[in-house]
Amino acid sequence: MISFYLAGHDYEFEIKNVFKIFDLNSEIKIYYDDKIDLNHSGLIVLSEFISSFDRLACRTSLYLNKMQIRCVTIDEKDIRLEKDDNKKLKKTIVKKSLYYVLSEYFNEKAEYGFLTGIRPNKILDTAIKNNMSREDINLILKNTYEVSDDKIQLLNEIYNRQTEYMCEEKNISNYNLYIHIPFCPTRCIYCSFVSFSKYNQIVLDEYVKKLIYEIEETIKLAISNNLKLNTVYFGGGTPSVLSIKNMDDIFNVIKKYYNLDDISEISFEAGRPDTINEEKLECLKKNCVSRISINPQTMNEETLLKISRVHSVKDIEDTYYLARKIGFNSINMDLIIGLPEESPEDVLNSIKRVVNLKPDNITVHALSYKKGSELINKTKDLLKDTDTIEKMYEITRHTCIENGYNPYYMYRQKNIKGNLENIGYALEGKESIYNIVIIEEVETILGCGAGAVSKILKGGGRHERVQNYKDLIEYNKNIQRNIEQKCEILTN
Ligand code: SF4
Predict the structure, then answer these.
(1) Protein residue with least CA distance to atom 7, ligand 1
(2) What does the alpha-carbon distance between residue 476 and residue 492 come to, in Å, rounded to a whole number?
(3) Could you tell me if residue 418 is left (phi over 0), alpha (psi between -120 and 50 degrees) or otherwise beta?
(4) Half-sphere exposure of 334 (CA within 13 A, CB side)
(5) Closest to 93 measured CA to CA, from 73, 63, 123
(6) What DSSP assignment string belongs to 161-223?
(7) What does the alpha-carbon distance between residue 472 and residue 181 come to, in Å, rounded to a whole number?
(8) Checking phi first, is residue 26 left (phi over 0); if not, alpha (psi -120 to 50) or beta?
(9) What atom of ligand 1 comes closest to residue 272's alpha carbon?
(10) How many Cα neighbours within 13 Å face the side chain of 396?
(11) Which one of 272, 328, 361, 414 is least enclosed by Cβ atoms within 10 Å?
C-alpha cells in the first residue's frame, strides 16, 4: 500500500500514472490533505503545490517508517514546454518532482522519463508547429521530460519518416474505413480485445449481415460529407475466421461505391495461421487486399502453447510462403516481447526466424498487462522486468535495423513491461499508411462492427469518438444509433 497526500492540486490521475512507471502492484490510496499520518504502513508521499505571485513549484517528500527519506522541489524555471500552457506546466512540475523522488527511491530511470501518454511524438509535432528548432525540442525532451538520448533519436527518426504521409490539406479530407471482426478461434492469455471464441458459421453470417448494413451506411455518410477513402483496414479479433462468402459479401458492398484498385491500401489481419487457407488468400488477393498480417507473436513452440495458440511455428511459416506464392507483396508479422517465461535467447530465436522469412513489416510489441486478460487475472506480481525487456528490445531493434527494417511508427500502452513502446518496422517504401494515420491521429477513422471506434477529425487536430457496443446483441440492437452518432459528428 502507498499513501499519497495531495496538497494544492488534484492531479490524482497523473500521480498514479507516474507511480505505475515503477510499480504496477501496490494499492494506491489518495488523501487530499497536507497533514500526513505517519502511522500508515508502507510508503507515504506528500505532493505539495507551491503557488505565489512569483513562483510555481512542487515539493514532493517521501516517508518510510515515520522518517522522511527523500524530498525534491521542482520549480517552474526547471521546466520548458513545447507550447505555452499553464495547466500543463503545473501538471509537469508535479509529475517531475514525483518522478525524481521515485526514481531515486527505486534506483531506476525510465527510458521515456515521466512521459506516460500513448504518443510521445505529439510533443515533437506540437513544438515543430510552434516553430521550435529540433535542438530546442530535443532539449525539452531531455531536460523537461527526462527522455533518454536513444529514445529522442528514435522519436526524431520516426517523425522524419512519417513526414511524407503528412499533408494537412489531404489528411483533413481523407477517411479510413476500419472493419472489426471480433472472433478468434481461441483466446490468447494476454488479450483484452473485443473478441469471441465461441461462434459458428451461423453467428458469423448473422454478424456479417449487420456489419454490411453499417458499412454501406457509413460509406454513404462519408461520401455525402465529401470525404475521400484513403485506406481500408480489417482488424479484430481475427478477420480470417470469415468464410469466403462473408469476405466477398463485405468487399461487394465496398465495390458498390469504390474501385478497390484505387484504394491506397487495403489491410487484412490474417493473424492466425489456423484460420487461413489457400482459397481464403486467393479471395483476398482477388479483392485487392494489398497488405496482410500473419502474426506469430513468438516463434517458440512452447510459448505458443502457453499463450493458448493452437498452431505451430511450421504453420506460420507455411502460411507465409503460401501468401507469397499467391502474390502478396506486403506482409506484416507481429512479435511480442515479455511473453510468459521467455528469455532474451527465445526472443533472438523468434526475431531471427521472422527476419529469415523477409516480411515487409515487423511489428514488435512489449507485453502489456491488460485488464480483463487471463494473464492479469492469473498473475500475482505484475513485473516490469525492465532490464530483461530492454535486452529483448535491443535484440529486436538490432536485428531489424541490421536487416534493412526502419522504425516508422510507434505507440505506448499503459502497464507495459519495461516501460517501452510498440514499434512498427518496415522495409523502405513498405510502411503501412493506416498505421501511421491512426496512431498519429491525423485522419478520420470510421469504424464499423462490434466494439469498433470511430475517430472523427474536427478542426484544430481535435477528434470526436463514437464507440460501438462491444456486446454482439447490443451491437445488433444499436447499429442505427451508431450510424446516427457518426452522422451527427460528421455534419456538425
Ligand atoms: S488473436 Fe489477437 S484478438 Fe484474437 S485472442 Fe489473440 S490477441 Fe486477442
Answers:
(1) 191
(2) 26
(3) left
(4) 16
(5) 73
(6) HHGGG--HHHHHHEEEEEEEE-B-SS--TT--SS-BS---HHHHHHHHHHHHHHHHHHHHHHH
(7) 11
(8) beta
(9) 1
(10) 33
(11) 414
Rounded to the nearest angstrom, the distance between the alpha carbon of 304 and the centre of ligand 1 is: 12
Cis previous bond, 237, omega within 30: yes
359 lines ligand 1 (CB under 6 A): no
Q: Please report, as a single letter, which amino acid is at residue 93.
A: I
Whether the CB-CB separation of 36 and 74 falls below 8 Å is answered with: no
For residue 297, what is the DSSP state? B
Domains and CATH numbers, the chain: 1-108 (3.30.160), 165-486 (3.80.30.20)
> What is the residue-wise DSSP string for 213-280?
HHHHHHHHHHHHTTPEEEEEEEEES-GGGS-HHHHHHHHHHHHTTS-GGGSSEEEEE---GGG--HHH
The residue count of the chain comes to 492
361-366 and 422-426 strand pairing: antiparallel
Q: Distance, CA 187 to ligand 1 centroid (Å)?
A: 6
What's the whole-model pTM score?
0.89
Residue by residue, pLDDT tens for the chain (492 residues) are 899 999 999 999 999 999 988 887 788 999 999 899 998 888 999 999 998 888 899 999 999 999 999 999 999 999 999 999 999 999 999 999 999 999 999 998 988 999 987 788 889 989 998 999 999 999 999 999 999 999 999 999 999 999 888 877 788 899 999 999 999 988 887 787 777 888 899 999 999 999 999 999 999 999 999 999 999 999 988 999 999 999 999 999 999 999 999 999 999 999 788 899 999 999 999 999 999 999 999 999 999 988 888 889 999 999 999 999 999 999 999 999 988 888 999 999 999 999 999 999 999 998 877 666 666 666 655 566 777 888 999 999 999 999 999 999 998 877 766 677 899 999 999 999 999 999 988 899 999 999 999 999 987 778 999 999 999 999 999 999 999 999 999 998
The residue whose CA has the least distance to atom 5 of ligand 1 is 187
C-alpha cell at 490: 460528421
- Could you tell me if the CB of 184 is within 6 A of ligand 1? yes
Q: Determine the distance separating the centroid of ligand 1 and the alpha carbon of 370, expressed in angstroms.
A: 13
Cβ contacts of 31 within 8 Å, gap of 6 or more: 3, 4, 5, 6
Measure the CA–CA gap between 410 and 154, rounded to whole angstroms. 9
Alpha helices (runs of H) in 307-411, residue ranges in sequence order = 313-326, 344-357, 374-378, 386-402
Judge if the beta carbon of residue 239 lies within 6 A of ligand 1. no
H or E segment and range at residue 115: none
- Alpha carbon of 174 to those of 11, 213, 363: distances in Å? 37, 22, 25
